[in-house]
Write a structure and sequence with these properties.
It contains 5 helices and no strands. The chain is mainly alpha-helical.
C-alpha cells in the first residue's frame, strides 16, 4: 500500500498522517503491549493535532518516541495486521518531523 499526502506543507501533511494513525489506533485496539493503550495514544495524538492546528508548539521528542521501533504504535500495528502500513507511515513521519520547527 502506498501512502500519499496531498497537503503542500509539512505541518498539514503531519496533521494528516497523525489523523491516519489515530484512526488506525481507534479501529484496532488489540494490543499486548504493557504501557499506553491504543486509545490513550490516539488521545495523545489528538492533542498534538490540535496543537498543530492552533499554531502551538509540540513535543517532538514524545512523538518520535511513539513512532520508534517496538514502541506502542508499532506494537499495535503488529498485533492488528497493519505493520506494512505502519512502516510507510513511520517513514513518512520521520521525514515530516525533521522539517518541523
Amino acid at each position: 500500500m502506498k501512502i500519499s499526502f496531498k497537503p503542500s506543507n509539512s505541518k498539514e501533511s503531519l496533521i494528516e498522517l497523525l489523523n491516519k494513525v489515530k484512526g488506525l489506533l481507534f479501529e484496532h485496539d488489540n494490543m499486548s503491549f504493557d504501557g499506553l493503550s491504543p486509545a490513550e495514544i490516539g488521545m495523545d495524538l489528538g492533542i498534538v493535532i490540535e496543537q498543530l492546528q492552533n499554531g502551538e508548539g509540540i513535543d517532538k521528542e514524545y512523538l518520535k518516541a511513539l513512532f520508534t521501533p517496538t514502541a506502542p504504535i508499532q506494537e499495535c500495528a503488529m498485533a492488528n495486521d497493519w505493520s506494512d502500513e505502519y512502516l510507510e507511515l513511520s517513514t513518512k513521519f520521520d521525514q515530516l518531523i525533521t522539517k518541523m520547527k
